[in-house]
Amino acid sequence: MGIGGTNPPHIGNLSYLSYFNITSNTFHGHLPSELARFHRLNVVDFGVNNFGGDVPAWFGNLPKLQYLRLRNNSFMVSVPASIGNISTLESLDLSYNFLEGRVLEEIGYPPKLKKLFMGV
Strands of 19-21's sheet, edge to edge? Predict the structure, then answer.
């Protein structure tokens, strides 16, 4: 849609969302911690933007998350171990970022994980 900028903290007021897709825009900066309030989220697709910093640990607190797509951003460092706490996670796409480390050793093996994308 060609929208961009940073995500304002008050976006956390949309806590009823179950599907959040802002792929292929020009968002940048860090993901605000207020997004951790989205306890109903099943799908997160923040792919093809320019988010940076660390992959937020609060993703591990989203109890219904099935699909997490963060591809084509500027996330750095390693994947937080809390991602392994998402017992409903089926698909994790972290490709085309600047991540380091050994993902499966860091997050473990989420029981329902069927797809893991880590391309560069």
Answer: 19-21, 43-45, 67-69, 91-93, 115-117
19-21 and 50-54 as β-strands: parallel, antiparallel, unpaired?
unpaired
Q: The pTM is what?
A: 0.90
CATH of domain 4-117: 3.80.10.10
Handedness of CA 77, 105, 56, 112 (dihedral sign): positive
* pLDDT tens per residue across span 34-46: 889 999 999 999 9
Q: Amino acid letter at 25? A: N
3-state SS, the chain, equals CCCEECCCHHHHHCCCCCEEECCCCEEEECCCHHHHHCCCCCEEECCCCEEEEECCHHHHHCCCCCEEECCCCEEEECCCHHHHHCCCCCEEECCCCEECCCHHHHHCCCCCCCEEECCC
